[in-house]
Amino acid sequence: MRILVVEDNRDILINIIEYLENEGYNVDSAQDGLSGLHLAATHQYDLIVLDIMLPGIDGYLFCQRLRNDARLDTPILMLTARDALEDRLRGLRFGADDYLVKPFSLAELVARIEAITRRSQGKGVAQLYVSDLVFDPATHQVSRSGQILKLNPMGIKLLVLLMKKSPAVVKREDLELEMWGEDIPDRDSLRSHIHQLRQVVDKPFTRPLIHTVHGIGYRLAELEA
Q: How close are the terminal C-alpha atoms of the chain, in Å?
């Protein structure tokens, strides 16, 4: 499970990271709102631990932009030193899933993370659509024009990354990081997977959806003829 922690207090941040990693979580971090938002919008996380009082943009605006602009529903656990009811309600209205008032125990933090994860996994997950291409996350089934497409797990992972960002261009290095982390097999691996994906998603159909943006990366979209 991959978690993003956005917290400007370095001591608190280090304590949270060490505790979560000891509990078996993979943790990324940021110490300001804008850097955290960039990570949240360009990487896949199972949950975000988000402080309210941040430099750059605060936690409220972070939530608002993640939900409205990036259109991501990644669960958010908000950390706040404000225990007034209105402050907590404001966080929930801006898109947080739960809140934890400082100071808190790290054991409670993990318990809240586990509870939010159980709830989010129980929700009906929306299907992804790009033109006539459909991905059903409940069954991991991919179809186009009603025809079921057979993809291996790596192909599905790559396709979902492109679908979630559609119609935006996804940088090559961002795709490689999401696919393999820091251990990228070789420079031709991504190109090979894109080629295989095109054979299944595009070749049998009249209009291509996967497009190369030379020198930058790839995009999945139905472009005007």
A: 41
